[in-house]
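thread: overnight batch results

M.L. [08:02]
morning all. the overnight job finished for the chain we discussed friday. pasting input first so we're all looking at the same thing
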Amino acid sequence: MAELEAQLLLAVGLIEKDTNGDALWVWCYPSVTAELRSLLLRKCCLTDENKLLHTFVFGQYKRSWFYITTVEVQDSPALKKVTHFSIVLMAKDFNPEKYAAFTRILCRIYLKHGSPVKMMESYIAVLTKGICQSEENGSFLSKDFDARKAYLAGSIKDIVSQFGMETVILYTALMLKKRIVVYHPRIEAIQEFTRTLPALVWHRQDWSILHSYVHLNEEEVEALKACTGYIAGFTDSEVNSRPDLYDVYVNLADGEITISPAVKEAMTMGKLHKEIGQLIVQSAEDPDKSDSQVIKDISVKTKEILATLASLTEVSDGNEKPTLNSEALKQKRFPPATENFLFHLAAAEQMLKI
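M.L. [08:03]
and the structure it wrote out:
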């Protein structure tokens, strides 16, 4: 188990805001590049003009996850000149609950001792043994935080109660590996919503498509554009006027979903989409069903669609991967929107003949 942690944890860092109001990068272990340091200063709320304190934020940049817990310093004799500080963890895995718990413990240690040395001891303990224990600061056991639990932590029901039948637009965009941008002025709302979306395509169990906290900063935008399909969260309403970044735009504050003209054709909705939408809504509105049961219901439907697609594929000479037989698809005489969706799904799953 501990070997796993050693592979997952990348670095720990500390940012402080002093009584002069300057936020500075103070310490890190083993090391953090200059590029990442400026990114993390931007992400931690201490450099924000609006002075809002965000206790916990997380996101991804170039395949590494960052988790930041920020606290206000109140009567800590160890930290006389510091008003706030942020503890940053960099890791390879998506698990907000795990790293929120661990950064909270590191915060308590720093508040008490005012020295990074004690934090480093706990970090190394988790790195090597997967556990850090202390009477007064609480204990942390990394194996209590399973990845699957993190995947299921969000609420699909909340999404459906907000978007109803339109949830099928999000489902279709995810199935076709399109680019989804989500806007809301509150980072907490963005994180809660975006982290749940990959569960709509549960068969992939792929959270690497999630970029839950992006700034309209050149490096970040370039890194995002290098990804094929993604879910990207922004708190800057300017993103609305960046059609180069999205196929589907979700204004979470107003509860509106917009499909970009460029993907209108691929995203044409028909009878199949209506069926899927009804299934999603019916399942989510059932008070006896948990979020994970709703995810399962959607997943069963997805598997049916994938089975239909698989039945229309053939393995050609020397090619391991089955490809779509377009003749077989045409002969099925599906409604146009269904045929269109299956064709684009085959493209997203790399099942088209090149």
